[in-house]
Amino acid sequence: MAAEIVNSEDRLEGDVIDPAFALHRGGKMAVQATVPVRNADDLSLAYTPGVAKVCTAIAENPEQVHDYTWKSQVVAVVTDGSAVLGLGDIGPEASLPVMEGKAILFKQFGGVDAVPIALDCREVDDLVETVARLAPSFGGINLEDISAPRCFEIEDRLKERLDIPVFHDDQHGTAIVTLAALRNAARVSGRQLGQLRAVISGAGAAGVAISRILVEAGIGDVAVCDRKGVVSADRTDLTAVKRELAGFTNKAGHSGSLTDVLAGADVFIGVSGGTVPEDAVATMAPDAFIFAMANPNPEIHPDVARKYASVVATGRSDYPNQINNVLAFPGVFAGALQVRASEITEGMKIAAAEALAAVVADELSAEKVIPSPFDERVAPAVTAAVAAAARAGGVARR
Fold first, then answer.
1. pLDDT in tens, 253-308
2. If pLDDT is split at 50, 70 and 90, which confidence band does 6 have?
3. Contact assessment for residue 258 and residue 201, using Cβ atoms and an 8 Å cutoff
4. How high is the pLDDT of residue 4?
């Protein structure tokens, strides 16, 4: 219906309405009841007086909120609009189309209901307090498009304060999918993660999380670069987050620029934008892996990357091996909610990555180290792995 509506405010491309505006008119979501209200009897059960019995039961035993409300199957998708896609700080209202999109992906790919919430506040204290006060209505919190370095503190403080999963998808979703693709790239080339030296361009939310999960998974070494070069312990200009990052990366003690540290590297992972010169790419080790994930313009164009790399991945859907967060977050939350996990641990993230990699284990090639987002095996595999890891890690409550 929405696509058929013509409105003078819809954007035109020539004489044709831009289909993106036509699709988004009126929003992409609606609330739908799961029980009928057809007559007075239904009304008395769904609302007063029948609802009072359920309210009283929950008041006496708060854990029953999971059984008699939507809490155990719904996630809040929360942003302040400060770092939306590649658009930057566009504010809460302008972020809503993205949050709606995220919410419908939760439902379509993971069977998880989600509610988009765009907050008009920027201070860390205000964001933490607001989300914490909203939390009783939800089984999990998915933080989205919140700028670094604020996103790190916000997530950490909410994890300390809440007893439900808190997950910043820009960090951990990207990290899970990257690890899965890298594991399979290594398998295609007959190598182990422990034999690889990686270089990450970008020390923001995604770069920090990818570094952490690669180290946890046993990467040989990883050096992270920001605009000023390699993040190393001898630099005096590092933020608290980057000082911590320097403490568990760059075991070889590299210094200098991105192009300096790229020489001889087995893996390039780009989460920063910008452009890497082809002559620097040419200095990488033979049979390198290039994951240039800036979107829509990868740091290294796939045509250039293929000259030097045995496996190439991007963030784009029009090239093979798309590193797409939708492969991770629906299943991660579905698994966590299934067992009423109190948090999402590093073990659960690694389990998600391993399950995702295993989906295409019998179909591996340089052009297929990661499944398609539309592969129906993905969400069930990730869900089951995350639930099992939550139980093994002692954070499951059923």
1. 999 999 999 999 999 999 987 899 999 999 999 999 999 998 888 999 999 999 99
2. very low
3. yes
4. 45
* Inter-CA distances, 229 with 70, 90, 147, 224, 299, Å: 47, 28, 21, 8, 16
159 a catalytic residue: no
- Would the CA dihedral through 39, 45, 47, 48 be positive or negative? positive
- By C-alpha distance, which of 108, 106, 107, 83 is closest to 95? 83
Q: Which of 119, 138, 137 is nearest to 128 (CA)?
A: 119
Q: What's the pTM value of the predicted model, to 2 decimals?
A: 0.91
Q: How far is CA 59 from the centre of its chain?
A: 35
Is 47 considered catalytic here?
yes
Encode pLDDT of 20-60 as tens digits.
Answer: 888 888 888 888 898 999 999 999 999 999 999 999 999 99
Helices (H), the chain: 19-24, 40-46, 50-60, 65-68, 92-110, 124-134, 150-161, 169-188, 205-217, 240-248, 258-262, 278-281, 302-308, 329-338, 346-359, 378-392
Task: Record the tokens describing residue 231, joined without a space.
Answer: 């993040």
In this structure, the dihedral spanned by the alpha carbons of residues 283, 287, 293 and 294, taken in order and rounded to 10 degrees, is 30
Condensed to tens digits (0 to 9), the pLDDT of residues 119-133 reads 999 999 999 999 999
As a whole number, the mean pLDDT across the chain is 92
Q: Is 132 exposed, middle or buried (0-12, 13-18, 19+ CB in 10 A)?
A: middle
pLDDT of 9: 57
Residue 382 pLDDT exceeds 90: yes
Does 49 sit behind a cis peptide bond, omega within 30 degrees of 0 on the bond before it?
A: yes
Report the Cα–Cα distance between both ends of the chain, in Å, rounded: 42
Residues 6+ apart with CB under 8 A from 4: 22
Active-site annotation holder among 28, 71, 102, 228: 102
**Residue-range domains of the chain with CATH:** 70-164 (3.40.50.10380), 170-398 (3.40.50.720)
Catalytic residue among 47, 228, 251, 307: 47
How far apart CA 241 and CA 261 sit, in angstroms, is 21
Instruction: Determine the 3-state secondary structure of 258 from DSSP.
Output: helix
Q: Cis link prior to 302 (omega < 30° from 0)? A: no
Q: What angle do CA 118, 123, 129 make, to 5 degrees?
A: 70
